[in-house]
Amino acid sequence: xxxxxxxxxxxxxxxxxxxxxxxxxxxxxxxxxxxxxxxxxxxxxxxxxxxxxxxxxxxxxxxxxxxxxxxxxxxxxxxxxxxxxxxxxxxxxxxxxxxxxxxxxxxxxxxxxxxxxxxxxxxxxxxxxxxxxxxxxxxxxxxxxxxxxxxxxxxxxxxxxxxxxxxxxxxxxxxxxxxxxxxxxxxxxxxxxxxxxxxxxxxxxxxxxxxxxxxxxxxxxxxxxxxxxxxxxx
Length: 234
Description:
Number of helices: 6
Strand content: 15-25%
CATH class: Alpha Beta
Distance between the termini: 43 Å
Structural class: alpha/beta
Largest sheet: 7 strands, parallel
Organism: Lunatimonas lonarensis
Family: Belongs to the short-chain dehydrogenases/reductases (SDR) family.
Protein name: Putative oxidoreductase
Shape: globular
CATH topology: Rossmann fold
Order of helices and strands: EHEHEHEHEHEHE
Helix content: 40-55%
Number of domains: 1
GO molecular function: oxidoreductase activity
Pfam family, one: adh_short
Oligomer: single chain
């Protein structure tokens, strides 16, 4: 039976790179995103490059608990994945003291609560099976505060804490938990920024790091992966 991976927010950037990295190793892939046209394009690309794997791509807004639970149940009807990657996220610029009303709630619901709901959907089966690997895609913003990124940074600090707690809880059951904390990566989030592409990391580098961490023996776990551009933070 083929192994499988679930990646939330898999239509672009780091999420898409992780999907393609694992698909190249024969994994069936399951993902979701908000935009139907991007999901259709992703499915087409995956089917063309990897015609033998199963691809499930569903429209879902994971800032909504109902959508997160629905998507998880759709996947569970088919498989309990070997790997879950909590990748869904948004960045809304602004300072905590004067950002637009609702930014904080929307950011926390998307970046943190979605991971909470998706993780809780699968952990009982992981515990019963005594295996599984959960990755949380955080950010160096979860290590270093910076201006104009208040709600985003708070969500990523919270994601790191969530993942650390999860690691301790699931340790006795053979379930590995890894925080991934990338720096500036060349994705759609940086469109319009007047910097050369080689100033950023490649999404494929983050995907390779996730694949490498997954491939350790069951006796070892990478608890945190911090990856920065060679020339430092932007």
